[in-house]
Amino acid sequence: MSKVMVTGGGGYIGSILTGQLLETGHEVVVLDWFVFGTKHLNQYKNNPKLTLLNQDVRTIKPAQIKGIDIICDLAALSNDPAGDLDANLTKQINFEARARLGRIAKAMGVKRYMLASSCSVYGANGDMAATEDSPINPLTTYAECNALAEQALFELSDSDFSVTAFRNSTAFGLSSRMRFDLVVNIMTLNAFKDQEIIIHGDGQQHRPLIHIADISRAFVKAIDSETYIVEGQIFNLGVNNVKIADLATTVAQALPMDIDIIYHPNNSDARDYTVSFEKMRNRLGLIPQMQIEDGITEVFHAVLKGETSMTPDTITLNRYKEVMAEGEEIIKKMENISA
Ligand SMILES: NC(=O)c1ccc[n+]([C@@H]2O[C@H](COP(=O)([O-])OP(=O)(O)OC[C@H]3O[C@@H](n4cnc5c(N)ncnc54)[C@H](O)[C@@H]3O)[C@@H](O)[C@H]2O)c1
Which domain holds residue 67? Predict the structure, then answer.
């Protein structure tokens, strides 16, 4: 078993990945500045194999990496609007800190480094499903930082320091750090709350999607794989490419109530892409276990039971706006860095 550092392990995907790693017997160090708190990891807090490290990833010290075998790097401002709040801060966290962490990790003898990148690097690619070899076309600061981080990290990759990038589709599913800024989750919540699903634009734009448990399984699977399978490799992760209009119909049909689908013509989001998941299936051997309907159902039941709801914490952009307005931790850290 390995000692695995999960940066961003307090987040939507990271908290699920942390659970899977502990369940498979790994020792886990979660490094996070816990903008969303530590409560999402409460269920594991008595596990002696879990350590929490409250640390800004930009200022991690080599000593904090000592003894780590594998890094799963998920810490980031995790979507386009949050990335647009402060482009300089986004570059520091989503690109420079990842490149720096990679350099430190390699020097400290870490064997594997796995990056949570994003299919958003493909931008608008029309009808051709993007493979890992397709040209990229990042349209936002967030997507551009993912592309730059991948490039910087692959420059470090060799058989002693194996770098893998997972280009995640838009995630869905239930996590204790819930995100209602993701399309399947928000459609499900709105359908429950208002018996309405709002579509921005004509609904013809495509999104690749994947459940958070399957993203986490990809990391675990890569840890268990021979180095030659994952070293220097990019894997798109997804279960399906769906048109937003069709997704709304899927959500409406999955729920036990009448739902209206309403179109709002304004849409500034130019993202439209489909992605191939062949390599994930054939080379990594990952077959997603969770379908979109499974995610809709679990989110619906959680909102129905009042276990999760729309709060500033569950909208990533709002939480970062809130913290920045408080002018506390993040701002202080920003000042320290630029001083
Ligand atoms: N959720 C998706 O749909 C999706 C899709 C593609 C890629 N990704 C990527 O997967 C990763 C995880 O996403 P998520 O959905 O879990 O997001 P999230 O916002 O829930 O989690 C990110 C975590 O990183 C932490 N973090 C951010 N900046 C940090 C810093 N400077 N130092 C330490 N910790 C910091 C946050 O506190 C948070 O716990 C991100 O890299 C994201 O870009 C997510």
Answer: 3-338
